[in-house]
Amino acid sequence: MNLRPYVYATGLVLVLAAVLLALPPRSAGQVKLAAGSFFVPLFSAEAGLQRVRNYAADKTATREELLEQNQRLALTNEVLRIQIQQLRATAEENKVLRIQVAFAATNQWKLRLGQVIGRDPSNWWRTLQINLGSRHGVREGLPVLTPDGLVGRVHEVHPNRSRVALIGDPACRLSINVLPSRENGILTADGATVFDHTIVNLQFLPAHTGARAGDPVVTSGLGRLFPRGIPVGKLLSVAPAPGALNSNARVKLAVDSSRLNEVWVILP
Amino acid sequence: MKTFYTLGLLVIALFALYLTATLEWPQRITGTRIDPLPALMVCAALRAPLRALTVLAVLGSLWQTSLSADPPGISMIPLFAVGVAVSLNRRAIHTRLWSARFAVGAAAGALVPLATVGTLLALGREPLLGWFSLWQLAVISLASGLLALLFFPLLQWLDKTVENQPLAAPYDTTTLIKRTPH
């Protein structure tokens, strides 16, 4: 058997792989963008199919269903309007108090709705792709959330899509507060996250922690990557470590990322 | 080079990767994302020329990593190595036996992710690993064996459909025609 073609092909693949793996992050991103452009027609076709499906569903909905839905939405609308009135008063009070104690004013979030268009095909990262990119004002590091809580942060931005590193991915470690004790800790992934992606590890709690199972966990705002107070999840268990410098805990995340179809990005 | 066959192979790889990234139910049922490329590479290596295998390893790996947080081309060498190993030993593999196809597909399905994770660790990355990763490896291996059973007839059909086959004699060679004088 003539082995020369195999030697040449092996050499070619080895050189190509070495060059690709040695690329700086920016060039690697461009290579991924170019390779990912092959999937654009498939993602576009799926979006088109979804529109057709929605159109067909709209056309086939009965009058009774629509009336019932309308009634339900009107009720929700009224409840939300009352809640907004209550919150407006709280916000006014908060504004006055902030001025009195010389705290910086908080800005309102500028949100943009994105659709989940794909998930990481490998088993060792926890990322997903959304249909918002730099053309929609998305930048690297922006927080991504749902009404239930924090999802992760934007990790890679392309013109029309972005990759979101989910909580539990090594690229999305975050500082949190445990309520009501207000103790700080860092959320990281561990072996348990591979088994159940809604469970993450909480490190660097104080050694004699007052945190208990069931306590809510929110973003701390430290590092200015995530705004303060976004719900993250609840403490599942706490392992106090007497004699050690700090304790660890397990956190059950508020958002199950495997069931996500839509997410909100907080724009700058 | 079988140009149309190679193009067909790439289209199948593109669709398979797209489905891996968008279908959620395999992950919900097994807790694992299935990698279709090792099974496809094995089936391709049983019939395709070396150039087609090289193109599949390079483009397949780049496409896969474009949908993932992996560095570009991380699985290129493992995929190509599997392709070359099967291609060099294609006469030793009893492709008519389902069990042989399944075994080769399953072995490739286990080796490629192992080598890819090894490369990631060697590069100083921190992939998410735990005891459950062993279960995921077993599922990927099993699924890869099953996918090999699916891809083999598909690629056989593709080869027959888009490439010229060696022509058979246009007459029956077993019958002797004896002409008698008038």
List the helices and strands and how they pair.
The complex is a heterodimer of chains A (268) and B (182).
Chain A: H1 4-21, H2 25-36, H3 40-60, H4 63-100, E1 110-119, E2 127-130, E3 143-146, E4 149-157, E5 162-166, E6 174-178, E7 183-188, H5 191-195, E8 199-206, E9 216-219, E10 231-239, E11 246-253, E12 262-267
Antiparallel strand pairs in A: 1-2, 1-12, 2-5, 3-4, 3-12, 4-5, 6-7, 6-9, 7-8, 8-11, 9-10, 10-11
Chain B: H1 3-22, H2 25-30, H3 37-45, H4 50-66, H5 76-88, H6 98-122, H7 132-162
Would you kindly provide a written description of the structure presented here, covering whatever features stand out?
- The complex is a heterodimer of chains A (268) and B (182).
- With 268 residues, chain A is α+β, with helices and mostly antiparallel strands.
- Chain A has helices at 4-21, 25-36, 40-60, 63-100, 191-195, and strands at 110-119, 127-130, 143-146, 149-157, 162-166, 174-178, 183-188, 199-206, 216-219, 231-239, 246-253, 262-267.
- A 6-stranded antiparallel beta barrel of chain A has the order 1-2-5-4-3-12.
- The longest helix of chain A has 38 residues, at 63-100.
- Chain A starts with a helix and ends with a strand.
- Chain B is mostly helical.
- Helices cover 66% and strands 0% of the residues of chain B.
- In chain B, helix 3 (37-45) runs parallel beside helix 5, helix 5 (76-88) runs antiparallel to helix 6 (98-122) and helix 6 (98-122) packs across helix 7.
- Chain B starts with a helix and ends in a 20-residue tail after the last helix.
- The model of chain B has no long low-confidence stretch (mean pLDDT 90).
- Classes of the chains: A alpha+beta (268), B mainly alpha (182).
- At the A-B interface, helix 1, helix 2, strand 1 and helix 5 of A face helix 1, helix 4, helix 5, helix 6 and helix 7 of B.
